[in-house]
Specification:
218 residues, 5 strands
Length: 218
Amino acid sequence: MPVAARPYGESVGYNLRLAAGARVATQILPTPMTEILPQWALPWLATITLGLQVFLIFIGAGVLRMVVKRLIRRIGDRYSLPAEMVIGARRGSTFLIYSGALLLTLDRLGVSATVLWTALTGFAAVAAVAFFAAWSVLSNIFCTLLILTARPFRLFDQIEVLENGEKPGLKGRVIDINLIYTTLQETSAEQVETVLRVPNSLFFQRTIRCWGRESASG
């Protein structure tokens, strides 16, 4: 039965894949094996080889992770190390092993290590700058949650934020608590009412003296 001829463009592409597969086959397989393989398998040999390499990399990483975890557990049992240290060592080793496997995989896929390292360091630098820039805001939000759950003081309580034992600190009645500030209403000696907006994180860095609403009103 006659076989239909391939179009010219498809024939050229197929011949190029066939030649590339043949070159890969001659590099990684002995000559008798290249003669045994069917002709249709040669164009896909490079892809199959790459897939096997990636598969073996992660299989090796998994085996290495199991060995390292057992080694860390034995060391922890022998020297009676704290459980937190053992768990941290296991997690750290797992991260390092799989990070190395990922780098090897990217290298096999043709990603330049220099480009990858530049991208990672640039991302880490931007993340660090953003984290430190937003740290004060994030800490105040977190301290707001602690104030609402731990309740060191409540609305309309009379409180004083002490600097030290010798001089008075910020003092007033709590009239509002939001995500960033707690507003205190203070009355000066001239009977002029003013408000203080205290960052919520400050309450966990100083000692707080608190009077209840009944004590304050009495």
